[in-house]
Amino acid sequence: MKPKVTMIAWNQNDNYVVTAVNNHLLKVWNSSTGQLLHDLVGHADEVFVLETHPFDSRIMLSAGHDGNIFIWDITKGTKTKHYFNMIEGQGHGAVFDCKFSPDGQHFACTDSHGHLLIFGFGCSRPYEKIPDQMFFHTDYRPLIRDSNNYVLDEQTQQAPHLMPPPFLVDVDGNPHPTKYQRLVPGRENCADEHLIPQLGYVATSDGEVVEQVIGQQTVDQDEQGLEPSILDGMIRQLQLEQDQRTGADQESASSVPNNGEGTPRRG
Hints:
It is a single chain. The protein is mainly β. The protein folds into two domains: 5-120, Methylamine Dehydrogenase, Chain H; 135-213, no CATH class. The chain has three helices and 19 strands. It has helices spanning 178-181, 219-224, 230-255; strands at residues 5-10, 16-21, 26-30, 36-40, 47-52, 59-64, 68-73, 78-84, 86-87, 91-92, 95-100, 106-111, 116-120, 135-136, 143-145, 151-153, 168-169, 198-203, 209-215. A four-stranded antiparallel sheet has the order 1-2-3-4, with no helix packed on it. The chain has a four-stranded antiparallel sheet with strand order 5-6-7-8, with no helix packed on it. The termini are far apart. Keywords: Repeat, WD repeat. WD repeats lie at residues 1-39, 40-82.
């Protein structure tokens, strides 16, 4: 097999360069002389993550598709810490990205199964206030393009960035309690009744019907026929005005005689 470099990173003070090779080795080089200093052995698959410590020039982090995360002392060529991303019942999860915090006390990784892994010193109590599974209910909603090639949410026909703040749900689409909904930017100061999503039954790709969040209305507002929010009302009004303008433009275009020149445009 011909060796190929898959990733390269300089250490914090630029004295060393670390390269990841497709034979699963990491190589540490002197950046001034080009001399090979160390071969770092431990990974069992290709490595696409090399992250240098923000202030400690000795430390380099590596992670790869084998689920391994290593912290290395590249001056000595030794392994300082190792973590294997084993997922119960599913084998290991490939690690796609890692970043250090600015103070160097923590680092976070994301894997192929949608997990966010947070490592660091100290107590994990601050992280216990949030549920294990956190998704926005709009994360996997399909998008479409309109006649102007603009992207719209398929269900609401609204631009995604103009939609109200999404709800937090678990992996099955079930909404979390209201105390978690306030963690979403834009919902911090909402009353409890505005933090209860509208549920409905949605057919999945395999034909199974499941109950999921389908809208932004609350149950009370839906029964009373009120606007879900001021923002929703503004979006609906803007959409109506745009539809009216589009209709007027098409009407004026259709009134212009063609005179047999060219092919008329499709509306």
